[in-house]
Amino acid sequence: MRKMFIAALAGLACTGLPAQEINSYVPGEGEGVAFFLPKTALEVRVVATKVTYQPGELCQYANRYLRINNVKAEPETHWEIKCVEVGSVGVPDSTKAYIVKLKDREVLSKVDLTEDGILRAINTTGQDLLDQPAYKLEKPAARVNPRDYLTEEILMAGSTAKMAELTAKDIYNIRESRNLILRGQADTMPKDGASLQLVIDNLNRQEKAMMELFTGSTDREDQVFTFRIAPEDKLVDKVVARFSTRLGVLPEDDLAGAPLYINVSSVAPLPVLPEEPSKKKRPDGVQYNLPGKGKVKVVYEGKKLYEGELPVTQFGTTETLVTKLFDARVNTRVVFHPSTGAVLKIDKD
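-> structure tokens emitted (349 positions)
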């Protein structure tokens, strides 16, 4: 149903056509601009890190020449949970669909909608408020080929053991050169601080690349997995996703991973005032949401990965901006939050 009337009336959303009366939308009844108020969906974003280890070609000699123990000789991949974030997103509420009926007098001259048909602004243009993530995604760093730093003697070595011995000596020489420079005892010292830093950085880069021939290399790459749920009051231990150190983040029905539980409860819900007999009918005007708040917690294997309070429209109420507010003699502009349907700003000329 939504696709039918949104497609038919989307062209009217930002026109200068006059509009005045706003009623609940009934398919086939009347002409005008149809819109939804949003309801809240909780978007759970799991940031997981894929850790990939590749052994170095001289790994079996790490203990003999560099005294490094427990170096793995086999490649390995595992996953880690970096963080979990939860945000409120607005989705069209099919139970709160309305239509701005066209009339002769211009009162509501412009209705701005999102791509999903959610009311965003009246008599002005709204904006999509993007949720900025608090995390920074980790990506594999550019890797230097350690063979670029090997001497001809090392490359021409007759055996892997000899190659490892010569490479280890070169690593010790790099460390000695760096120590002499830092102590000011080198035969040729850099002329200034910038030159000193350049030399030290180059020596560090060479040592790190050559060390990886023994210790191997590890790449870390973050990936974001997103899940949505409909919030309910007193929601306890709902499985939102699963996680495996071997397979990563999995859907909730994949039993290969341990569950991530989400708990939701209403926080200080808005009181519902009793209606007076003479005021049972809601006044004419623009409907908007007064969202409540929900306390959200995500737990994995007994550890709390996220806890916070978020706006939830289902825990609040729906109110009305009466038609009198949009007097024809003034230009009243209203901006709504596209995710919650709450009023962000009201301006008048």
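The chain is about 20% helix and 40% strand.
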